[in-house]
Amino acid sequence: MAIDGLIILDNVGRPIVQTSFHSTSPAYPLIHIDTYNNALAKVSRPDDVDPVLYVSGINDDKPSACCHVGCGGLRILAPISGDVDPLFAFAYLRTFIDILREYLGHVSASTLRDNFDVVYQLLEETLDSGGHPLTTSPNALREIVIPPSLLNKLLSVAGANISSLSAASSNPFASPIPWRKANVRHNNNEIYFDVVEELRAVVNRSGVSLSNEVLGKIDTNSRLSGTPDLLLTFSNPKVLTDCSFHPCVRLPRWSRDKALSFVPPDGPFILMEYRFSPSSSNSSSLGVNQVPVPVMLKPSVVINENGGTIDLTAISRLSTRAIEDFTVELYLGQGAGAPNFMVSGGGSWAFDPRTLVLRWEMANLPPSSSHSLRGSWTSSIPNPRAARAFRVRFAIQQHTFSALKIDQLRLTGEAYKPYKGVRGRSLVDLEWRW
Amino acid sequence: MSFRAGPRKGENYELSQDLNSEYRDKRKDAIKRVIASMTVGKDVSGLFPDVLKNMQTDDLEQKKLVYLYLMNYAKTQPELVILAVNTFVKDSDDPNPLVRALAIRTMGMLRAEKIIDYVSDPLQKCLRDDNPYVRKTAALCVAKLYDLKPELVLENGFLEQLHDMIADSNPMVVANTVAALSDIHASVTSQPDYSPDDPALFNVTTNILNKLLIALNECSEWGRIAILDALARYKTDDEKEREHICERVIPQFQHVNGSVVFAAVKVIMIHMRGIRREDLCKQFIRKMAPPLVTLLSSPPEVQWVALRNINLLLQKRSDLLQNEMRVFFCKYNDPLYVKVEKLDIMVRLANDNNVDALLSELKEYASEVDVDFVRKSIKAIGQTAIKIDSAAERCVNVLLDLIATRVSYVVQEAMVVMKDIFRKYPATYEGIIPTLCANLDELDEPEAKASLIWIIGEYASRIDNADELLNMFVDTFTEESYPVQLQTLTAVVKLFLKKPDVSQGLVQRILNTATKDCDSPDVRDRAYIYWRLLSSDPAAAKGVVLAQRPPISLSRTTVSPVLLEELLAEIGTLASVYHKPAETFIGRGRVGADSVQRKGQDLVDDRLATQKALQTVAAGQQSENLLDFDDVPASDSQPSGLAATTIIPQTPAAANLLAGTSANPLDDLVSIFGGGTTGAASAPQNPFGGLAFGGENGFGSPVNSAPPTSLGSSVASPVQTQKPADDLLGLF
């Protein structure tokens, strides 16, 4: 089992940061970088590069594999050797990216360069040179690697403070709970739950969902002192299926009475993820057991010899809530150009000549409103092949598809009474065929 | 520090000045700049003594940066690192546990011969440290030490200490200890001649098992994976114990980390084999489905790995995910590699209930932008038709719709698929032949052309102008590619046998051209065979060339059942993603080093081949020609490709595969047919459809002497085919 190291490439495929690859030859990271860049050169869309690349060994080296993921404009490679689960590498990469986001805010070539010392420390702490991920829990990590913002603040104060800070975290991992810091103190004890659900669906031209699923998660931000033991109950836990939990959740309790019993980490974390299916039985047939799509699209796309025309109407099916951040995208095919569109009912359209994607945006669709986009484009290639589906994305605040309701939150183990907040939010990602 | 005088000016000189500054901030800033230069590849090794002076500090961050610098130059300049040893040893006694852990971790990473001997004492102390962070760091350090100098680990009793630490009160320490012991175990077993009672082997005993099961629920995701991997290696014959393990592992399916899920799936798949209660197994399988489906909403690369593994699991347990086909529908924005895997799984999941939904999806995909994906979708329609008899007609209608679009590559691909449908359902859809022939001019790809020619030859008696159509191809015969030439040759002979009156001239012309003007030995030899057959005994020719062939069928697995078992035991590894046994690409242990290079090479080809493999149908095209010969004995009793595949476990090559010695699919292919009676008829269904790369190995195999050699040749290169073709002639 070995993740041999990690290499972060910038947008032109040059390494910015890499681990030191102690136990391999110096050429090892280089062949991985080469392999990735060669594979990238062969595909038309950068996303189409196979996620696990085979890397043949040089000289008597063993062959290995290169797992890679994208992050912003960057590409992060994890060379693995031996019969390792590539998912293991991907899981580590994702975790590492999350950690970077938490430390740096925005992850880009320049933020990495500016904070390379922090990035190196993070690499050292999260990945052992033998290939084992080490400390990745944000709570524990913050005790041993100081986030840059905090550090900068301290540097601006007198130099003497620095060493006292190091002393402050001199008893790391003393906490009996691996995911929670010991001795947490907050002036205001509060905990927030954001129930975020995403509807992903493929819809055919007459508005019938072909595949339709709602994935939910409970984003939690805990700012509670001491060691709070929480019990969260739902009034309708039946809507939750295929659940997966943060390690802090006591699984036996959940399987017994569908209540979440846990001692939370400090700060933001994802408490649980689930799937919502209106009726879990008989999932093979169409219709009844699907979540209704909250908009109606009436697309009419005609493609002819030298371009095409679009007439698209979007109608909100919601009667009380507004739809926010509404975007529709359509790839117009090779050779597309000279777009000429009109929108009615607000919003704007744009065409990206590089990606050849037409984009229609509206900040707000009031309940039951109707909007449209009309126009045409030309193509230098006869009978252009445009995408067969519009990609439609939007958000609805204060709304969840599952109508999941938190019944109560009980706290034991501490004397204070926390402030509790619950919010619901829905995201929709549709593929609407024309 | 006179032995390495720094430069007098320039960047390094300034850095050196700052490193020796009297101000703490300035020194720290200078260290950062040194590291920055180091990361962009500048040589800052000259600053070694200056940096080293800053190692003694109570600022932990500064210490870490200095350590980082040391690690970077330890490999190239080990003699300099010796200077730092004392500080390391001292730091491993520091009151701050972070410093102790940092020191011991860094010493483990330095990998310098000279430093190792100093590691033992501090390591001894750190393994017994009060702080769990130090203990867990030290545990991993033992594994690294073992890598460099095993005897040091044995002499100092570190192994015993690790074994004691499995009972540690802190689950993270347990997890790292297990990881370290597993690393040592792996490094022992990678030696070709290790002894089975090497003390460094990590055999999970019942006692250890219980401790692991307790720690499992309490440690981090990475710890869980290490523990689950150890559980997968646990061997027991006690069925109750296996059930117990499975039940304790099942809750891990609810972990958010997909890698934990697959590590758990692997444990279940391994221990489930020893459980005879089918109801219990069914229950495990049912619980496995939801987390797998959940993984499909992850980022594409995770989806891909999940899909490859699901594909394998489905080959073993077709009841898994049987109602979930919709989650595999392709999204427009999915990367191609995800779409291709989804298509494959959708066909696997197809049944009478969902076939309509599947077909309308596939038809939709056939109009997408990406040409590769369109072709694969059309192939999937053909596979569906072959898999589900009752849906064949609907599939044919969809294909006709697609042909009507007149988009060149759609028509060509549909033609190839059509041919396979004819091979599965002979004499069922003759009504559409005129539509197909109408598209003759559109075809420019050899495979599509060859397919249409095959159809014309096969149904020559029902096509009025078959002779005219074939005449066109005979005119351009020498310009065509070999597959087209072969098909043309066969089709003309079929036509002649069916309608001798109209095609006498045609057949003479083509036999003449093929034997005189053709440089492919395949084509030439086949022409001679036909010629002799026709001239010596036309009745026999009829019996041979026009005999009924058994319909093709779609194989349930793309890998042989034996290999499948092996791969399932490695679910959640590279092997299960590549669908190849591990030794073919990592070359550790079980296979000699010399074969590694070659097999590694195969892997690349073979990944292509795997992609092609499901297009079994298409691959059959090459062997089609041979079918014509070989079918006479087969026509009565005809176990199809599937039936033949089940013979595998008893064949010698299967045993080879089990032993891990033979990774070459051809080996077992040949022996399958050595054992079966209906030889080559099954070639088209063979899972390793795109076999062309492995030809020479198949020939070298001892099983090859069995009579139906034709199989090996059907996929080998033209030159090799010559020989068996001659043999066959002799047979007749």
TrEMBL record, chain A:
It is found in: Endomembrane system. The keyword Cytoplasm does not apply. Its main location: membrane. It comes from the Eukaryota. SUPFAM superfamilies: Second domain of Mu2 adaptin subunit (ap50) of ap2 adaptor, SNARE-like. Residues 188-434 form the MHD domain. One of its GO terms (biological process) is intracellular protein transport. Keywords: Membrane, Protein transport, Transport. Pfam families: Adap_comp_sub. GO terms for cellular component: clathrin adaptor complex; endomembrane system. Belongs to the adaptor complexes medium subunit family. This is Clathrin adaptor, mu subunit. It comes from Gloeophyllum trabeum (strain ATCC 11539 / FP-39264 / Madison 617). The lineage of its organism: Eukaryota, Fungi, Dikarya, Basidiomycota, Agaricomycotina.
TrEMBL record, chain B:
Keywords: Membrane, Protein transport, Transport. It comes from the Eukaryota. Coiled coil: none annotated. GO terms for molecular function: clathrin binding. Its main location: membrane. It is found in: Endomembrane system. Residues 9-537 form the Clathrin/coatomer adaptor adaptin-like N-terminal domain. GO terms for cellular component: endomembrane system; membrane coat. SUPFAM superfamilies: ARM repeat (SSF48371). Belongs to the adaptor complexes large subunit family. Adaptins are components of the adaptor complexes which link clathrin to receptors in coated vesicles. Clathrin-associated protein complexes are believed to interact with the cytoplasmic tails of membrane proteins, leading to their selection and concentration. This is AP complex subunit beta. It comes from Gloeophyllum trabeum (strain ATCC 11539 / FP-39264 / Madison 617) (Brown rot fungus). The lineage of its organism: Eukaryota, Fungi, Dikarya, Basidiomycota, Agaricomycotina.
